[in-house]
């Protein structure tokens, strides 16, 4: 699905999120919203869940110096935030059995958030317009971090909420907890 379709079908959960969605709509209308050369560009990410144990998988991000969800940038020619989030989640976790979650619904955005990214790796400080999904796995023991510095940790939702520092990710985790509580 194209970015404009995803954003048009998404219902923001707060005024701040609605403003972020509108900024990304404007960006999508103006050209290549995925281009890393822009000071604000779109990324796709995911929180991986293991429903039987009610745990979530977080990744240590060296550049951000924090525990975050998995995800990242579009590869050339990619325009579907769901497909980007799924590819990135597979690459960063080694999990090949990921499916959208919750399973009773069509793949749905869990959250849209514009987040600051510090300068590094030859890039100036910039912002990611992050489109977030949730995926589940039946094989949590199969995780393989993509590098030695990209540690992975399975955490209960309470542990994850204690470990993350970003308010927007805390909101995403709360939404996942609400969905898990209702399923």
Question: Can you lay out the helices and strands and say which pair or pack?
Answer:
Elements (H helix, E strand, L loop, with lengths): L2 H7 L5 H16 L9 E11 L4 E7 L4 E3 L1 E3 L8 H13 L5 E2 L10 E7 L8 E11 L15 E5 H7 L3 H16 L1
Parallel strand pairs: 1-7
Antiparallel strand pairs: 1-2, 1-4, 2-3, 2-8, 5-7, 6-7
Protein architecture, described:
- The protein is an alpha+beta fold and 183 residues long.
- The chain has one domain (3-182): Nucleoside Triphosphate Pyrophosphohydrolase, CATH 3.90.79.
- Helices cover 32% and strands 27% of the residues.
- It contains five helices and eight strands, in the order H-H-E-E-E-E-H-E-E-E-E-H-H.
- It has helices spanning 3-9, 15-30, 81-93, 157-163, 167-182; strands at residues 40-50, 55-61, 66-68, 70-72, 99-100, 111-117, 126-136, 152-156.
- Strands 1, 2, 3, 4, 5, 6, 7 and 8 form an eight-stranded mixed beta sheet that branches.
- A hairpin with a 4-residue loop joins strand 2 and strand 3.
- The longest helix has 16 residues, at 15-30.
């Amino acid at each position: 699905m194209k970015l404009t379709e995803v954003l048009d079908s998404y219902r923001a959960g707060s005024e701040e999120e609605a403003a972020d969605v509108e900024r990304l709509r404007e960006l999508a209308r103006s050209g290549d919203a995925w281009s890393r050369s822009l000071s604000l560009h779109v990324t796709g990410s995911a929180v991986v869940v293991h429903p039987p144990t009610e745990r979530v998988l977080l990744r240590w991000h060296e550049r951000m110096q924090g525990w975050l969800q998995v995800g990242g940038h579009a590869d050339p020619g990619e325009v579907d935030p769901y497909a980007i989030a799924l590819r990135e989640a597979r690459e960063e976790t080694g999990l090949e059995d990921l499916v959208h979650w919750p399973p009773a619904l069509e793949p749905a955005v869990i959250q849209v958030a514009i987040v600051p990214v510090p300068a590094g790796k030859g890039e100036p400080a910039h912002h990611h317009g992050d489109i977030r999904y949730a995926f589940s796995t039946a094989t949590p023991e199969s995780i393989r971090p993509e590098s030695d510095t990209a540690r992975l940790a399975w955490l209960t939702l309470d542990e994850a909420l204690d470990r993350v520092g970003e308010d927007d990710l805390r909101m995403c985790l709360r939404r996942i907890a609400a969905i898990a509580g209702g399923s």
